[in-house]
């Protein structure tokens, strides 16, 4: 499926400000599931330098440095991408041991993806509890666990878009019984880590058969399954993701894959405004 994605963000400030260094994360991955044929990034005011770099997970990020002052800041990315059909993991043969907990001790690169989301590396007790419930009545298989866990999350939490604020903890999402896509992605990630499944937070786009009034960035979770590698699961959508998804970047921390990170220097109590538009054709 070939798509063009145009993502525009416009920041306005009531007075002139000096823009500090910014990190921009709007370039889609290019791999076996999504092939990027063209990418353009336009920024106004023109930056002093744009420095491309790779994140800890190998995703493209642009470090942008400015000089002078401005009362507006516009970022526009254009991506031409083709998504490929995702094989159904539940129908594929896999000779690896998929029993829980997964045997990943020999793969040091995955150890960081099973640590708890709390600053001290501990797991959220609420995530531990729902993970234990998902383990009940299954054959201790990672795919069965993921299916059961996502069904539990959908039953306990109503997906509700929320545009402002960081991702909630698992405890808050489950107690509020509502959550944005990023809240549900964190809940799934944390519950998987509780039982030793490497997992990470993903930011990207989801195409809709019936285009919404306004497209928004989406979030889901990727888990590492022996024999299958990193695969995406969306607890606020279809479960195992398909060719309607385009990943931008992934990380253990949701804030690390925000589309724009940075700050500005200006008068105290300065008012600012953000408007965005995502066009997918």
UniProtKB/TrEMBL annotation:
Gene3D superfamilies referenced in this protein's UniProt entry, alphabetically: 3.10.620.30
InterPro entries: Bac_transglu_N, Papain-like_cys_pep_sf, Transglutaminase-like
Matching SMART domains: TGc (SM00460)
Residue ranges of domain Transglutaminase-like in the record: 173-237
Pfam assignment, any one: Transglut_core
Domain of life: Bacteria
Protein name stated in the entry: Protein containing transglutaminase-like domain
Organism: Prochlorococcus marinus str. PAC1
């Amino acid at each position: 499926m070939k798509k063009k994605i145009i993502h525009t963000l416009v920041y306005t400030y009531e007075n002139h400000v000096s823009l500090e260094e910014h990190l921009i994360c709007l370039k889609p991955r290019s791999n076996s599931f999504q092939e990027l044929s063209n990418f353009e990034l336009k920024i106004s005011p023109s930056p002093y330098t744009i420095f491309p770099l790779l994140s800890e997970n190998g995703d493209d990020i642009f470090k942008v440095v400015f000089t002078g002052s401005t009362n507006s800041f516009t970022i526009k990315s254009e991506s031409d991408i083709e998504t490929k059909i995702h094989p159904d993991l539940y129908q594929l043969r896999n000779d690896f041991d998929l029993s829980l907990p997964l045997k990943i001790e020999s793969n040091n690169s995955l150890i960081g993806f099973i640590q708890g989301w709390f600053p001290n590396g501990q797991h959220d007790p609420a995530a531990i509890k729902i993970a234990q419930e998902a383990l009940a009545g299954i054959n201790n298989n990672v795919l069965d666990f993921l299916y059961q866990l996502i069904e539990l999350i959908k039953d306990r939490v109503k997906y509700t878009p929320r545009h402002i604020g960081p991702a909630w903890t698992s405890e808050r999402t489950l107690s509020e019984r509502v959550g944005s896509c990023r809240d549900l992605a964190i809940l799934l990630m944390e519950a998987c880590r509780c039982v030793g499944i490497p997992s990470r937070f993903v930011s990207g786009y989801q195409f809709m058969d019936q285009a919404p009034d306004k497209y928004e960035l989406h979030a889901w979770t990727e888990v590492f399954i022996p024999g299958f590698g990193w695969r995406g699961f969306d607890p606020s959508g279809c479960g195992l993701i398909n060719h309607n998804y385009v990943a931008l970047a992934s990380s253990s921390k949701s804030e690390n894959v925000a589309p724009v990170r940075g700050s500005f220097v200006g008068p105290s109590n300065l008012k600012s405004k953000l408007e965005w538009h995502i066009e997918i054709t």
